[in-house]
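Technical note accompanying the year-one report. For the benefit of new consortium partners, we illustrate the data format agreed upon in the data management plan: each record pairs a sequence with a structure-token string. No post-processing was applied to the example shown here.
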Amino acid sequence: MALDCSIIITNFNKDKYIGRCLRSCLNQSLNKDRYEIIVIDDASTDNSRAIIDSFGITSIFLDKNVGVAEASNIGIKKALAPLIIRVDADDYINTNTLLFMTEIMMNNRELGFVYPDHFVVDENENKIKKVKLDTIESIYRHGAGIMFRKINLEAIGLYDTEFKNAEDHDLLMRYFKNFNGYHLPIPLYRYRQVGGSLSKENRDKWESKANVKNRK
């Protein structure tokens, strides 16, 4: 059976969360023969490698830290399926995520992407709030959890590796100019909020948004 979807996970020093992320990706209702999981570890210095190795999935361990954009591109190029979804190493997904999103994409060839709503969860996975991604700006804030067509990502040149903090925002701006998508109003993605606030890397992304707009 041919693969339908590739999950791309980039990880850097998320040993506290990567196991939960991988378990959620492995525990999907979509037939296991229809998807693959690819982890790109971006030269972590914690216990990430041992945890990732214990799952026996396709993994790439980089010797040098290259950043999320380049690590994501490495995973996308490695992917064998026509559909791509990124899951952040400190987040996780509902068991029906791939089944629902893949079926939408496979049965609606005119769609270039599909994206679900999110639940923001705390350190202990308690749901804090539902995030409805019903506007373009709200989608820009959550680059992970969107399912794309690989051929379309390649057509726009994948992630721009010059961006270190706003790579999602930049890619989505370029992608949305060329392809139409569908909003699936079901909270399938679990976005982890640590310590009651956004992580430093997510704060950096917000601060970098102006740089994206200025370059376009």
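Partners are asked to follow this layout when depositing records. The longest strand covers residues 181-192.
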